[in-house]
Design brief:
61 residues
């Protein structure tokens, strides 16, 4: 089960980050930055979180 989760996180967390970026854009339509930037930043943040989880949580596998 841990291996499946370890393989799933690099795909799921960037998608979740992009989704959070979309939610941010919809809640704050008059923000200064371009909406695509928020979606991209969310995806990059999700990727970074997945890398950190893989490095520190799944270290012993």
């Amino acid at each position: 089960m841990k291996r499946k989760l370890q393989n799933f996180l690099p795909f799921a967390l960037p998608v979740l980050g992009g989704l959070l970026g979309v939610i941010w854009v919809n809640l704050n339509p008059k923000d200064f930055l371009h909406p695509v930037l928020w979606i991209g930043l969310g995806a990059i943040a999700g990727w970074a979180v997945s890398r950190l989880l893989q490095r520190f949580v799944f270290r012993g596998l």
